[in-house]
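User: My instructor asked us to take a sequence, write out its structure as tokens, and then describe one feature of it. I'm not sure where to start. Here is the sequence I was given:
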Amino acid sequence: MTFKIKGQSFFNVILFLTIFALCIAFVINFRPLYYFFVDHENLAATVNLTREGLIEDYRHLLNYLNFPWISSLKMTLPSSANGLQHFADVKKLFLLDYGVLILGAPVSVYYLRRLKKQQMLWKLIAPAQIMLTGFVLLLVIMGISFQQFFVLFHKILFRNNDWIFDPTKDPIIDALPDDFFLACFVLFFVLFIISMLALIFVGKKSLKSEKKK
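Assistant: Let's start with the prediction itself. The structure tokens for your sequence are:
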């Protein structure tokens, strides 16, 4: 019994980490969200580039962050040594996220299939409810003061202050406004919360089927 409980806990952690990583991967690659801010806030004019020029720089930035074989960041906009170091640190986090997703996906699929085969998807209800409650609370905290949340987020993830950009040395920061990052966080939370609700729904449906027998 103890082995089964420990095993289930392990698979639950892998499942939720995989969903977490998947939501992050979707958000950071959802380019239409950035294009909306480019047009809505006229970001190209802010950094003295054409719309096409800014989007091209954003494409180069994402390619650098996403692909391990791209070792240097090349944009039209200038970057300081600290700015480049910060993007290098962000790249490590991106690759870590993809690593979790790639390794966790097959394990998660196996776990879900096993639960479905054994008609035990209802076991996901309680842990999904805990995750849902926690992330709803985080969303509320973020809504109270996004600036403080954003600063704390960076202090937790980074061990230096390279994330504090000087617009005169790293004008790219003016093309990445706070409102854009807020939208990214909101999208992530919405996706993750919907995922938890889906697990709860599937679990309850499984539980009803089990009770009918």
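For the description part of your assignment, you could build on this observation: The radius of gyration is 20 Å. Try explaining in your own words what that tells you about the chain.
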